[in-house]
Amino acid sequence: MVTALAFGIACAGATTASAETSQTLEAVKKAGAVKCGANGQLAGFSTVDSAGKWTGLDVDFCRAVAAAVFGDASKAELVPMTSQQRFPAIQSGEIQLLTHTVTATLTREASVGMLFAKPLFYDGQAFMVKKSLNVTSAKELDGASVCVKPGTVTEQNIADFARANGIKLEPVVIEQQQQVVEAFLNDRCVVFTDDSTALASVRSEQGTPDDFVILPEVLSKEPLSPGVRADDPRWFMIVDWVREGLVAAEELGVTQANVDEMKKSQDPAVQRLLGISGDLGSLLGLGNDWMYNAIKSVGNYGDIYERNVGKTSPLKQERGLNEQWKKGGLMYANPLI
Amino acid sequence: MRSKTKVSAGNRLITVLVFGVVALALYPLFRWAVIDAVWGNLGPEACKETFGACWPVISEKGSLIIFGRYPAAELWRPALASALLLGTAIVTAMPRFWNKALLLAWIAAPLLFLTLMGGGILGLSSVPSSQWGGLPITIMLSVFGIGCAFPLGILLACGRLSSKPVIRWVATSYIEAVRGVPLITVLFMATFILPLLLPSGWNISAMVRAQVAIILFTAAYLAEVVRAGMQTVPKGQFEACEALGISRFETYVKVVLPQALSMVIAPTINTFVTVLKDTSLVAIVSISELLMTARQALADPVWRTHFIEVYVFIAVIYFVFCFAMGKWSKSLERAYIFSKGRE
Fold first, then answer.
1. What is the pLDDT of residues B109-121, one digit of tens each?
2. Same domain membership, residue A172 and residue A90
């Protein structure tokens, strides 16, 4: 009887508690680390460098969440996994955050039972050709052979694009990444298609990257988004708002380098972001300096982008769709008020 | 018997031809790996000009491939730990060291290994198992896997041949159930399904789950190998033991098993080799063993074009271990089968 009563109280307590705090957050705090599932073999997004340190855009986002939760980015624990593993891992609670360049789709949210935060990176399938071909638009590629890795979506996109533009494209399907690249370099096909970041990465590996052109047409939408399990909306909010905070920081001009000076800023938006005024962090169940810690550790969205995939990185990606909305991109932070 | 000194011209010709074909086939490989290769600790630019192997990729990525993400300042710890474990395994492989001290070594070596790797005591900094990787993991999973699965397999084999129906039934259904599913499924279940079934407070590390899965899986296979050996021992020997009043336990330990195991040396070690190679499957459950660290090293866009060199490097490592086990199998057979006049 006493046990039953105690159990009842405990349950009631748990219900009220979960209305305000996140169970996942409690578990993360107890374990002392945020576990993020990442690819580990994808340049620019998540790789292990020669010294054994994780680097990449996905990795930095995981660090930002760890910094927001613990005030310490080193509490991010990256778990390498394949594409087959990533959904079971998030479903079983083996990881709390999936930063695995997952394209957010309706089917995935509904059938896997997860929620996607706003995209960290807008990617899309594109075409690459040799510069000597003198082509500036994919619409000029009538009759061309296209090297492509098997995968219904990628191949389907080519067919759709060809039909929509009234041209003929002949797919050459090759399974292995290295073999597709070799085939393209050895002129077995004149066009190579993949996600534009993957193309950029291949281009950067070549001795003379300037001999290759990535054409401006984008065939598909690939919003690569961090995901969490759908059963804990409070945890989802934390992840989603850390992403918003990083984008907002870039809009407000708060960078990793100047974040300490910005603490003295008179701009109320900056003050709220850095927790000088307001209570944004505590509303999420975090410290008020949550975004200060995140920005101090990994920088704002622009810093993260440039370091991992931007001009200063081996991938040399333009900002493109990932530019701030004021400059014509899609990166737009909801108001942190 | 044909005289060994006289070799027919035809045989000579065949020998020369075979050598010629092998040499022709191997020369391009030799040329790639040695003559045209770039050696030393250079940058990726050094390999632009050559068609040969680019070995600087190994000096650049070697420590990542061998030791994974283990903290760079502490690499002596996984090195020493692996050497200890391997040393124990090698000593165990030699019949002249088979005595009581070896049992102590088998208690000490795993403890020392885990202490060195994990740290947290004796002034060693703590390194969580999520940061372990590379060759030490492959060695650990194989040595612990074989070391624990072997006795377990013998027990299961005895259980399967037991005269008591309950024991026989349990052992048989275990063996058949485990052999009925692929290792990769067992690993996947242990990693992703088990946490859902366990009470929420329980948190068994992924490494332990994978290790246990390998042990339980291997035991079922070894049980069948051992059973095959035990069935070669004539029934009369059991009856003789019984007539002499020797206990059932002693019958097994002193009479049946020594004969049974020596009959199945080759298939037993064959299973050991399989275990070593199967450890590469744990990559599917996010454990960075040798093959996975090699793949992680290849993600670097600067070095990715030299993937063949990296795969050759780890292939050589696997080969050395597997070849050594093959040789060991031969020497054990010579000592325990041929000496008894059986062939």
1. 888 898 888 887 8
2. no
Residue A205 lies in a domain: yes
B193 in contact with chain A, both atoms CB, cutoff 8 A: yes
Domain-embedded: residue A267: yes
Q: Is B304 on the interface with A (CB under 8 A)?
A: yes
Nearest to A52 among B68, B285, B301 (CB): B68
Quote the pLDDT of residue B200: 65
CB A41 within 8 A of CB B298: yes
Domains with residue ranges and CATH for chain B: 58-110+129-340 (1.10.3720.10)
Residues spanned by the domain of A174:
125-214
Q: Tell whether A231 and A300 lie within a shared domain.
A: yes
Q: Alpha carbon of B332 to those of B267, B325, B342: distances in Å?
A: 12, 10, 14
Cα nearest neighbour of B206 on chain A: A94
A113 lies in a domain?
yes
Tokens for B317, please give them.
Answer: 């490592």
Inter-chain contact B191–A53, Cβ cutoff 8 Å?
no
- Given CA atoms B129, B130, B132, B133 in this order, what sign does their dihedral have? positive
Closest to B336 (Cα-Cα) out of B222, B229, B237, B239: B229
Chosen domain end from A160, A191, A214: A214
Helix (H) or strand (E) holding A293: helix A290-298
Do A117 and A142 fall into the same domain?
no
Question: Cβ–Cβ of B206/A204 closer than 8 Å?
Answer: no
| B207 strand-pairing partners | none
Query: pLDDT of A91-117, one tens digit each?
Result: 888 899 999 988 898 988 999 899 999
Q: Are residues A240 and A303 in the same domain?
A: yes
CA distance A99 to chain B (A): 14
A84–B284 CB contact, under 8 Å = yes
pTM: 0.79
Residues of A in contact with B298 (CB under 8 A): 41
Sign, CA torsion A186/A192/A198/A203: positive
Is B43 buried (19+), middle (13-18) or exposed (0-12) by CB count in 10 A? exposed
Per DSSP bridges, beta strands A114-116 and A144-148 are unpaired
Q: Considering A147, A181, A214, which residue would you say is the last residue of a domain? A: A214
The CATH number that applies at residue A131 is: 3.40.190.10
**Tokens representing A24?**
């996942």
ipTM of the complex: 0.72
Tell me whether residue A1 is in a domain. no
Task: Reply yes or no on whether the pLDDT at A243 is more than 90.
Answer: yes
Interface test with B, best of A26, A41, A42, A50 (most B CBs within 10 A): A50
Contacts of A207 in chain B (CB under 8 A): 48
Is the Cβ pair B286, A89 closer than 8 Å? yes
Same structural domain, A92 and A228: yes
Q: Given CB atoms, is B210 within the 8 Å cutoff of chain A?
A: no
| DSSP element (H, E) containing B261 | helix B257-263
Band of the pLDDT at B38, cuts 50, 70, 90?
A: confident
Distance CA B57, CA B61 (A): 6
Check whether residue A263 and residue A287 sit in a common domain: yes
The torsion angles phi and psi of A214, rounded to 5 degrees, stand at: -95, 120
Decide if B192 and A92 are in contact by the 8 Å CB cutoff: yes
Same domain, A102 and A153: no
User: Which of A272, A277, A230, A237 lies closest to A252 in space, CA to CA?
Assistant: A272
